[in-house]
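Single-chain item
Fold in token form
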Amino acid sequence: MPIKSDYGAEKIVDFRHLSNFVQIVDAGSLTRAAGMVGVAQPALTFQIARLEQELECQLLIRSTRGVYPTEAGMILYREAQSILRHLQDVPQLVRNPAIDPSGDVTIGFPNSLTPYFSTSVVAAVQEKLPRVRLRIFEGESVVQREQIMRNRVEVALICEHVPAADLHHRLLFKQRLAFLCDGRDSRDRDGDPIELVDAVGRISGLPNVGNPVRAALDTATQKLGLSIDVRVEYNAVRTLISAVGRGLGASINLWMPMQDVDDGQGIVTRPIIKPHIWLEVSLCRSKLHQPTPAAVRVEEIMAEVALDRISCADWQGAVLQESVG
């Protein structure tokens, strides 16, 4: 694995040293790790010193109770695990890349969509691709984009107000936004539209700044010269929905079936009109990295699961990609 120094020259990190470093962190002891890998402890100590010299940072802290990684060491530990897993998969990828793909695939879901798609994707992958190991990363869409750019997530389902130019996008559908309330007001009936100007004055909590729902809403309100008195900002959609259900104030989010969300019982959803506000839901991956055969197949499954779910009668407010003009 080439590592560039400040002077531009490349330094080579031995894969065996990476493997032994992982064993040391797992064991928490140089002595135990030496026995596990069959290397004398002085040689193992020398390898760590060599790694620290090559990477120009301290990787391990030694104490009377053993060793544990520094912050830099923890980063190397996680990256080394990923590298070593991929190395183990190389022979099979080369022998049989398309017919029966194998290996690790890391996929991502934004918080708002995880309850609707993630478990179905896991079930479908286990059935159709039994030799693929999935890793699921849940986080806001902006975090998913960052993880893709860092090559830590290979394919992610992402909600976007304005699509990011630095990612490859496969638009699946557009989803409308809706006003969420607890239904205690006699004016509120599930599915009845509500004009944005009427919704604004009743909102007290919203997703945090940077969330695509918030970005789309801010754009719409600014065009109409409206403002929202935001008293609470939520980083997690489940917390937002729970707060609405407990009568802590109305909000706006994607117009989706509330029965799929643990805390969504009793929530009334009213689609926003004048104007309609939409988010794009796409499968995204890096433009810089060629996807593995396994990642390509998993992406296909993610698309199938998402489109099957939004085609159900209880899913409203979606426009399929073919219908998007």
In short: The longest strand covers residues 167-181. Residues 98-170+283-323 form a domain with the D-Maltodextrin-Binding Protein; domain 2 fold (CATH 3.40.190.10). Residues 110 and 140 are 5 Å apart (CA to CA). The radius of gyration is 24 Å.
